[in-house]
Amino acid sequence: MTTHFITLELELQETPTRLQQEILVALCQWGEPLRWAITGVAAGKVRVEAVVTTEGEILLPGVPTAVI
Predict the structure, then answer these.
(1) CA distance 39 to 55
(2) Nearest alpha-carbon partner for 61 in 18, 13, 11, 8
(3) pLDDT, tens digit, for every residue of 13-43?
(4) What are phi and psi of 65, to 5 degrees?
(5) How many CB atoms lie within 10 A of CB 50?
(6) Helix, strand, or coil here: 66?
């Protein structure tokens, strides 16, 4: 298992619940999220920093490794 630090920029959603769902879906494309935080909001976008794990050493974007 390998850990990776990633940063994402996503569209701001209408509700906190919807935003959380969108963040988790986006993070699961990179690996299994261990922790994440919203670190910035500007112009309808949110910046998310996260630590995810993958089974292999190579991080492949868009390849789901966890199911919500």
Answers:
(1) 27
(2) 8
(3) 999 999 999 999 999 999 999 999 999 999 9
(4) -125, 0
(5) 21
(6) coil
